[in-house]
Each structure stands twice: as C-alpha cells, then as structure tokens.
Design a protein that fits this description.
It is a single chain. The protein folds into two domains: about 1-275, LarA, N-terminal domain (Rossmann fold, 3-Layer(aba) Sandwich), CATH 3.40.50.11440; about 285-390, no CATH class. About 30% of the residues lie in helices and about 25% in strands. The protein contains twelve helices and 17 strands. Strands 1, 2, 3, 4, 7, 8, 9, 10 and 11 form a nine-stranded mixed sheet that branches. Strands 12-13-15-17 form a four-stranded parallel sheet, covered by helices on one side. The two termini are about 40 Å apart.
Length: about 425
C-alpha cells in the first residue's frame, strides 16, 4: 500500500494510515511487539533526515498500544558503529516516546546476545542477535526510504544491518555486503512494514538531502516493499543486488508479478516528484573536489571493495560537506588509495593516504604515505583522522562543548547497562 501523507504535522492522519494499512493487509500484532526503526545517525543541525521521523514512530506506537492483544511495544535499534545507540536516540528527539503507554526501550548494543544458526546463510552461517529481537512475538519494521551510496537502496531489507552486534556488523561489510544483507533477512523477518517516505533520502544514507515524496508505504513483506521502494528511487528491482539474492533463495514474492499495489499516488505523480533525484556520492569521480581517488581491487578479487573502505569514503565525504558546505571542494589535492592499486602514485607534495589494512600500491610511490587502519575503516574513525591531512573541518572534532561532554558519558552509561544485562540477566 502507498498512502498519501503530505507532511508530518497531522498525527491523526498518520495514525489513520497505519491503522488502515494493518486492517486492509490483515496485520494482527500481538504480545511483545518489536518495533525496529531506522537511526543510523542523528544530529540537530546536519543530521535531521537519516532516521525514521518521530511522528511516524509515535503514530505506530499509538496504533499498537490501542490494541488489547499487544502486551508491550519494544523500540529496538543499534545505531552506527562506535557510537552508543542511546546517544543518537536523544539527538533524534525520541526521548518523549519512553512515556508512551506500553513502550519499552531496547538498545541492541546493550542487550543480551543469542547465537542463531542461519539455514540459508551464504556469507554467515550463524550470528549473534539481541535476545529481545529473537524472542519477540511480532516484528514491525519502520524504515526510512533512502538512496544508499553502495547498495543503491536502503529500506526494509537493509534495515537489518541495525540488528547486528558491532563486531559482526563490520564482518563482511566489504565486497560481501550485499550477501550479508540477504543473510540477515532470515532473522530480521518482519511481520509488517511501515515505511517513512514522507521525506525520502537523496545523495547518501547517513547525511541525506530530503525530498518530499509525501507518502507512507506499508506491506507484509520486506521483499515486496523494497521492490516498490527501488522503483520509486529510479531502479529496477534486479539492480538491487541484496534484493536479487534474497529472491534467489526463495523468499517471496520472487517476482514483481506477485506484488499487488494499492496506491493513492499514481506512478506518474511519483516519477514527477523524483525526476531530479540526486544520486550524489554514489560515484566518487563525479564529486567536485581536488581529492584524487585511486581505487584498486580487493585482495584476491577483480573489482574494488565497494562495500568496505570505498563505502566509508563516500559516507565520510558526505558528512564533511553536510557539516561545512564547500569543504571537499576546498580540500587539499591528496591521493586517497583504496585496495591493491596497480599503478604509480605521486603525492604531489602531500601525504598519500592508504585507506584500510589491505591497501597497497603495486607501482612506484613518490611521497610519504600515511595509513588509516581498519577493515573496513569506520566512518567515525576516518572522520576524525582524515580532515587533518585534507585541511578541512571535522564534524566530530568540531562538536559544541556540551556534546563533547555528553558523548563519553553516554558511552560509559551504555557499557554499564551492557555489563549488567549480559552478566546478570
């Protein structure tokens, strides 16, 4: 279902849309309902649009709480790596949701973990997941529809990256990324999906530029939802590799012919609204910057590691630009090397940055090299270290004093709750 929702202001309208969607699609939430939202990042100035809007979450909670069959509504998520989820939860403006009836909060990075075998796993044969997620009676996902610099689409299927423990989230976040996302669907298999597509994300997934589509999507299958979401963003479903892999494993609907769409917006209206959709940062070579990107193949492969350190570069550069517009255009003309680069590299008087553990230059190197370690390098790590060499401001080091104090306090609080939950529960 695609329902028109022109803005986030009318909470009653959003409640009505969600309630109607559940009724028409036969959704019957009960017991302990796990409500998984999208919150990869949040910031009051330059990170307002990467997460599920609080009004959409509030409407879903209200509809669920009004059902006597629902015992509790558990908000569950794990934000981007190296950051405690509770920190971004506050910055996203979600704190008031704690006071809603039947609501409990579960930060997956603090919860007990349960090992789960994956019968259809390709890259992963088993993974550890939050006990709360695994033991939920009913799962409702509330993703944000956005463009992704590597996977092209981030919606219901890719929302599952937020159910991984941090160590396992980075495992396979390289040239195996699409297969990893497909693996996660076996556990992250929601019963109902409500997509925030009122404002959809252009450019990139962490610092998206909003585009007002004015819609809410609903369905009982992540596969169907993502197939429709792909088309909204201008892609054929088969262009979304993790969606193709999921379908190849027999997860239905295996073809678009099996999808029924009830929409208040015509496809002509959707195409008109998205005709100038901005895919910036998907191609580093098209960015307006003097930075030189030298991309080699990953070890043992014949293509670059798009899902690893190249993905990091794209996300970090988008962050630099969101924080200080024009910064990447004013950056120093450094050579940034990723992978096994089969050629010569001239630093032209500047340090040559080797990004990632495996990166090496097979040809001649003229100039000093500096390495940023990681596999992949985390975006927060790159965001702290690279600006020094690039001569641009860092979004993390430029935080206001109040936030510089709050971050370590939230880290400490998160580790305390993790210790209590995993040692004594």
């Amino acid at each position: 279902m695609i329902r028109a929702c022109p803005d986030y202001d009318d909470l009653d309208r959003i409640r009505g849309i969600v309630s109607e969607g559940m009724e028409e699609l036969g959704a019957k939430p009960f017991g302990k309902v796990l409500l998984k939202y999208n919150m990869v990042f949040a910031h009051e100035r330059f990170g307002l649009h990467p997460y599920t809007n609080p009004r959409v979450l509030e409407a879903i909670i209200d509809v669920l709480a009004a059902r006597p069959e629902v015992e509790k509504v558990i908000l569950g998520e794990r934000t981007g790596v190296y950051v405690p989820t509770r920190y971004h939860f506050i910055r996203a403006g979600y704190e008031f949701l704690k006071q809603k009836p039947k609501v409990e909060i579960c930060f997956f990075d603090e919860d007990q973990l349960v090992e789960v075998a994956l019968a259809k796993g390709g890259f992963h044969k088993s993974l550890r997941f939050s006990r709360t997620l695994v033991e939920a009676d009913y799962k409702l996902y509330a993703p944000k529809l956005k463009h992704h610099v590597t996977t092209r689409l981030t919606c219901a299927l890719k929302l599952n990256m937020g159910i991984c423990d941090q160590k396992e989230r980075l495992l396979g976040h390289d040239w195996h990324l699409e297969e990893k996302i497909a693996d996660l669907y076996e556990v992250g298999h929601p019963d109902f999906v409500v997509v925030d597509a009122v404002d959809i994300g252009q450019q990139n997934e962490i610092f998206p530029k909003p585009l007002r589509l004015g819609a809410i999507l609903m369905g009982t299958s992540s596969v169907a939802i993502d197939s429709v979401g792909a088309r909204i963003l201008g892609f054929a479903p088969d262009q979304i590799e993790h969606l193709r892999i999921v379908r190849s494993r027999g997860w239905e609907p295996v073809s678009d012919d099996q999808i029924e769409i009830s929409s208040e917006l015509s496809w002509d209206e959707i195409k008109e609204k998205t005709k100038d959709f901005d895919y910036s940062y998907s191609d580093l070579g098209k960015l307006d910057t003097p930075i030189r990107f030298l991309l080699g193949d990953h070890p043992g492969g014949n293509e670059p590691c798009w899902g690893g350190c190249i993905n990091t570069l794209k996300g970090a550069l988008a962050g630099f630009e969101a924080y200080a517009a024009g910064s990447i255009k004013r950056a120093r003309p450094l050579a940034l090397v990723v992978g096994e680069y089969d050629g010569d590299v001239d630093g032209q008087g500047h340090p040559i940055l080797l990004i990632g553990n495996c990166t090496k230059v097979k040809g001649k190197v003229q100039g000093k090299t500096r390495r940023i370690w990681g596999c992949p390098v985390g975006i927060p790590i790159f965001t702290v270290l690279a600006p020094y060499y690039l001569g641009i401001p860092s979004p993390l080091l430029g935080e206001e004093p109040a936030q510089i104090y709050k971050f370590p306090s939230q880290v400490a609080l998160s580790y305390f709750h993790k210790m209590i939950n995993r040692a004594f529960r």
